[in-house]
Structure formats: structure tokens, C-alpha cells
Amino acid sequence: MFGGCVLLVALAGAFPAKAQQDTTRAPTDTVRTDTVRAPADTTRRDRIPRDTTRRDTLEGRRERERKLSEAQAMSFAVPRPGRALSRRLPVRDPALAASELAARAPGAFYYDFGAVGWSHGVSFRGRPPDQTALTLDGLPFDDPVTGRPRYDLLPMPFMQALRVQHGAATRGAPTAVNTALRPYDEDRPLTELRYRTGGFQSIGALHTQQRKVRFFGWPAFAQFTGGYFGRASDNTGFLGSEGVDLRRERRLLGRLRYRRRHWAAQFTVLHNRRRLGAAGGVGLGANQPLRRVYFPGPGDVRFTGAERRLLRTDLDATLRLDTPFSRFPLTAAAYWTTQTQRYRNADLPAARDTVAAETDRYGLRLRQRRVVRSPRFGRHDLTLEAHAWADRFSEGNALPAGAARTRLHLSARDSTRLLGSAATLSAGLHAGSGQQVYPAASARLACALAADTSLRAFRLFAESSLAGQPAAWIEQEGFGPLVRPLPEDRAPGRVLSARLGARARTPSFIGPVSARLAVFAHRTTDRLDLYATDSAATAQAALVEGGSHRAGATLTARWRADAERGFYASASATALLHENDAPPAVASTVPRAYGRSRLGARYAFFTADLDVDAYVEGRFWSPMQSRTLHGPTGRLVVPRPDSRQLGPAGVIDVHAEAQIRTATLFFSYENALGGTQVQPGVLTVPYYPLPAQRFRFGVYWPIFN
């Protein structure tokens, strides 16, 4: 019994002692493990990921450089100045010429011949039509010799929408029309076909595709675009089809793009070849009525054997490169334009029957955009540009032997906010041969005002500008014996312009209605222009001494213009309220009032597989003397003071566009009232009546391969 008690005591003492010892050691172990070892291990483990992160950053950076998405590749898209004239592409428009698209700008008047390939002109706010600067991808697209904008050579099916810029525009001109080739950044290969007919045959085809390539292990996007455009026309119904036919027109386009993450390069070539009749219009005797122009008889059309030939190639290379000075890339473009043109008229004396010119233009353009933010002065979006080129006359008799000239344009543009309004400021200096040195500047303010709830939007804008009158080569040197130039000691003056306007939009009970009113005025000192002489084939460059003034207003209204279904309408009217030009013939080169309107309806059929847009479009103008065509150069010149008065008149065209899936069909009935008792004939240019009641058909079909 004693032994059992001893055993029980021993066991009872043993177990409590062991439990107490374990409890005591546990905290000790926990302290050592958590406090001493764990932090030490954690510290080591924390260092290891940092080392790994460094290795991953280097390797990841290299890996990312080997990968490139479409969004990461350098883009060629740059903001283009001016207001877009349309939301749709020109290839989907029934217009036959780019000048017809430009003429839809508010305040523009269209000098229309109604013939395919002819020298249509566009006057903006009453200014001379050939003093408008025209650019393609930011590069000049005028005629190096005559200076007129070459709307007729633009690759219209392959372009983006035109943009019109007023004020101190491109190259310091009062007005510029800017456009660009389409980017064609589709994921799949694309083929586009466009066909037009109706007194002519026209076909255009384009293929483009983009591929992701890898050279020397570096990824990039390579894109090739090739296009062909050709047409010919006998221009039936125009001047009795005598000496007016477009005998041949060919246009080739090639473009290669290579885009990396930090730089991109582009090479573009555009080739034009054409041969066009250059008849001198219907000749009228002093006592013959103007009505006779509408019904010319045999022998009434002058210079039926005259023709103009042109061969032109535009080649440019563009580089966009990231720099440490701005988050926007630097753009550098070098270009070369070679042009050969010839005018031949067997009806002129032997010493004047042929005038030819072969010229070359070499140019360089630099452009840099930079955004600057300042706590005191706010945000400024700056664009700096330097543009220079040289023209060289190499062969022919149109200009003096060895003739050459240079041009330099420096400009800066800033978009910011002033006094709570969006402001655009620009300044530039422009210099060239022949005493052509002038500054340019412009300022524009636009603001949205808080208005009554019935108005969805109400905006005010004001702008002013100082620009020059860039002189063409023929105005400085002549065009053989057919253009007499300015005296060497004379240079054109400046153009001071101002515009004030308002724009409002409201959701009325009949649908959205918008209106825009703009009042403009400009003053030109020593106005430069070409004037017709007593000879039908000769023109004279001259300056109007002193200052000439012109003021007017343009009202534009739209009703449901963007509606996808139902009726819609739009109208634009311009009135020249004050003119003070001398000689009197200058004042009547544009009508005192003119405008255009459109009424149409859009509907869908067959479960929206067929979308139809049918509309009637009209153009109207008051009496004027207009401008006459100088056949050798294609320039629209001021007529003689005894020129006949034209108008009032108008033109009505009927159009229908049908979109079947991706294809678009065009149907046009032009000058529907022409040749009837209502309107026997119509003229926008003296002695060149518009063809009457002409039907056109066309189709545009994009195909994704």
C-alpha cells in the first residue's frame, strides 16, 4: 500500500512538472522563432524579390520591345487645321471633282464648266479662286508655274474629307484647302473599286494591306497601298463636243509605311498624266445675243484644235521620330515634284502657238508639336513649322532660261484658353524671290454661352487675320508670249480680314434645327490678279492701286441633316453687302448674292439591307460678269470691262444614293432644267454653257479579302 502511494505521488508530480515546462518553453521558442528568426528570414526573402524585380524589369523591357501592338506603333495621324466639309469620305460622294467638294463650304462660289477634267474654280468670300493654297498631306499641291490649286489632279477616291482654313492659313495665304490620303489602317487586306459613267468612263481601283513584320528581331507594322485611276471623256453636250474632250487621264498612287514604337517612315509617289482639249468657248459678235451661246453652230467655237498636256510626279519621304523635347514626335518631310506641261494652239501665230515648261520643285518641311502647362498661364498646345522649297525651270519657252525661285515659311500656332474662351493664335514670316516678304498672323476666339433651355448649344466666335498674296511664277516672269508679268519693282500688298459669327442648335418639334451666321470683311492693298486682254489667248498680271474692300454675310441652316431616316434639308446663302473695288470689272467677278440648298429623304428597305438617300440640290446666283478662262494656263481671269452680264440663274441636280450592304450606287441627273423653256441655258463662266440634262451612274464597292 505504501508503494502504491509513492507511485501515485510520483506520477502526479511528474505530469504537472512536464506541463509547466512545456508551457514555459513554448513562449521561449515562439519568441526566438517569431522575433529573431522570422524577421531575419523575412528580410532576406524581401531582398530576394527586389533582386528578382530588377532582373524581371530588364528582361520584361526586352520582351516588350519584341512585342508591338497596333496602338503602340507610331501613328501618322496628325491634327489638320481647318473645318471639315463632310463626315463621309469623298469616295462615297457622287461628286466628280475635288473642287466640287470644296465649293460646298459656306461662303464659297463655284465656277463650274460642267465638263470632266476642266479647270473648275472656287472663290471663298469673293476672293480670287486661284489664290487659295491647296495641300495634300501638308505639302503644296499647286501648279509650280501657273500657281493655281490643282483640284483636278488630286486622287479624290483615296483622300480624306477636305478641310477649309481661313485667316493666315497655309503659307500665309488668306484661304487654304487641306486634305490627306486615307490611313487605311484596316486589320484585313482591302480592295476598293469605283466606277463612273455618263458621257465618260472612269475607273479607280486600290488595294492595301498591313502586316506585322520583324527585321533583325525588332517588330514593326509594314503597310503597302497601291491605287490606279483612269478616265476619258468626250464631254458630250459641252460646246458641241468640239475640242473639249479629256482624251486621256491616268493617275497612279503608291505608298509604303513602316512603323515602329519610337519612329515611323513613309514613302509616297503620285503620278499624273493627262491630255485635255482647250477650246476657247463660243465666240460672239458685238451684236449677237447671249442666247446664241447656248446653241453654238458650226465654226462658233474658238480654238477647237487647242490642247493642254501635263505629266507630273510627286514623290515624298516622311519620317516621324520621338525626341526628348516633346511627347509628340518630330515630323520631317522631304519632297520632289517634277512637272512637264505644254499648251499648243495651231490657230495662233507660229511664234505663239506652243508654250512649254519643264520644272522641278525640291522642298523640306519640319513640324513639331509640344504641349506646355503652366500654373500661371495654363495649357498651351504649340505647333512649330518650318517649310522651304526651291523651284527650278529646266526646259521650255514659258519662262526665261535658267529661271529659279525660292520660298521660306516659318510659322507658330498655339491653342489655349483666354478669358474662358477657346483661343487659337498663329504667327508666321514668309519670304521668297521677287520682293515677296510678308508677315502673317491670326487670332480666333470661340466660346459657348449659357442660354435658355430651349437652346441645346449656342456659340459665339470672332477671328481676325493678316495674310499676304503669294504671287505665282507666271505673274512674276510671264508665260511665254501669252502672259505679261508684273513690273519688276512691283509686289502685291496684304490682306486684312475679320469675321464675327454665332451658331445655335435647338431640338424643335419638327426635329433638330441648327443655324450659323457669319459676318465677314476683308481689305486688300495693291490687289493682284490676272486680267483678260483684247486677245483671247493673252492675259496681263496687274495690281489694283490702293485698297479694295469687301464685306458680306453668310447664313447656313440645317434641319435634321444628320438623321438616318426621314426627310432632311440644308441651305446656305451669301450676300456681299459692301464692295469698293476698282476697276468696276473686278467687283462683278462674283455675284452679289449666291447660295445652295438641298432637300432629301433617307429610308431603309428589305430589313435595312438597302439604304436609300434621294435628294434635290440647287445652286443660285444673282447677275455678275464672272471670270473668263485663260486657256493656255487654265487660270480664271478678270474679264474685259465690256464683258456680257450673266444671270441671274441657277442649276438643279437630282441625286440618289443606294447602299447595298457595303456597296454604294450613285444616280445623278445634272442640270435637270437646262435646255427647257424654263431655262434654255446657264453660264457660270462666260462662253462656256453648262451641259443640260446629263445622266450619271456610278458604283463604289469595298472588298475585304
What shape does the CA trace take?
Answer: globular
| Low-pLDDT segments, ≥5 res | 1-56
Count the domains.
3
Straight-line N-to-C gap: 107 Å
Gyration radius (Cα, Å) is 35 Å
| Multimerization status | single chain
Biggest beta sheet attributes: 22 strands, antiparallel, barrel
Secondary structure category:
mainly beta
- Which fold name fills CATH's third level, the topology of the largest domain? Maltoporin, Chain A
CATH superfamily of the largest domain: TonB-dependent receptor, beta-barrel domain
Beta-strand residue fraction = over 45%
Level-2 CATH architecture of the largest domain: Beta Barrel
Name of the level-1 CATH class of the largest domain: Mainly Beta
Mean pLDDT: 86
Summed up, the helix count is 4
Number of strands: 32
Q: Level of helix content?
A: 10-25%
Quickly describe the structure.
With 705 residues, the protein is mostly beta strands. 11% of the residues lie in helices and 51% in strands.
Commentary on this structure:
By secondary structure, the protein is mainly beta. It folds into three domains: 1-65; 83-179, TonB-dependent receptor, plug domain (Ferric Hydroxamate Uptake Protein, Chain A, domain 1); 191-704, Maltoporin, Chain A. It is built from four helices and 32 strands. It has a 22-stranded antiparallel barrel. The protein has a five-stranded mixed sheet with strand order 1-6-7-4-5, with no helix packed on it. Strands 2-3 form a two-stranded antiparallel ribbon. The longest helix has 64 residues, at 2-65. It is globular and about 90 Å long. Mean pLDDT is 86; it is low at 1-56.
